[in-house]
Amino acid sequence: MNPRFSDALREASEPDWSAGVAHRFVRELGEGSVAPGVMASYLVQDHRFLDDFLGLLGAAIASADTFDARLRLGRFAGTIAGEENTYFLRAFEALGIDAERRIGEPDKAATRGFRALMREAAQAGSYPCAIAVLTVAEWLYLEWARRCPYPRPPHFLHAEWITLHDNAEFGEFVSFLRAELDRVGPSQAVRVGEFFTRAVRLERAFFDAAYEG
Ligand SMILES: Cc1ncc(C[n+]2csc(CCO)c2C)c(N)n1
User: Fold this and answer.
1) Which CATH superfamily is domain 5-210 in?
2) What are the catalytic residues (predicted)?
3) What confidence score (pLDDT) does residue 116 get?
4) What pTM value is reported for the model?
5) C-alpha 203 to ligand 1 mean position (Å)
6) Residue 76 vs residues 154, 170, 173, 185: alpha-carbon distances, Å
7) What ipTM was predicted for this assembly?
8) Would you list the domain boundaries of the chain?
9) Ligand 1, atom 12: nearest CA belongs to which residue?
10) Among 158, 189, 166, CA closest to 35
């Protein structure tokens, strides 16, 4: 039997996919041992990421070819704009990160690369390309979060970041994204594959960057 299109893309993105899913950051998160400075750097950069991610989600909503997809993506946009942003604000408070640092700290190279990729995918006006990048960002996070051990670490900074990505609702959304990628991706297989592979490489680099500087 032919593998699913999304599985073939994931295979083609090795070794970056597995390196991302089993990254030191993810292991330390599961243990609750991420150093506060590393967590702070990661979250400051990731909050920027969320900005362009929402833009990409908007582009996917605009270019979707079915009403059902628009509804599901739209509901998801509402969720992220709500509870996930709340986590960031509580985390910044707990880590003593003020607005000055949050706004003033420059983007790291991986953040710049990822933001540029998301803007490129959004501007392509192609639903398959937008779905490719969204699928990587969500699916890779679901995969690492599912591997985190129980019990969850005691501090909300670690525990909630895992739970946000390891829950039934999120798993269903990733299933939807993969099904969309399987459905619309093959029509632009080469271009879609490039966006997918670049996104996986940047996910890995994004975790690496938390330990730099
Ligand atoms: C570099 C990076 N890649 C992927 C995600 C995962 N992610 C981004 S937005 C979103 C939706 C709401 O949780 C999710 C899961 C991240 N946070 N940072």
Assistant:
1) Heme oxygenase-like (1.20.910.10)
2) 203
3) 98
4) 0.97
5) 10
6) 28, 9, 8, 21
7) 0.96
8) 5-210
9) 80
10) 158
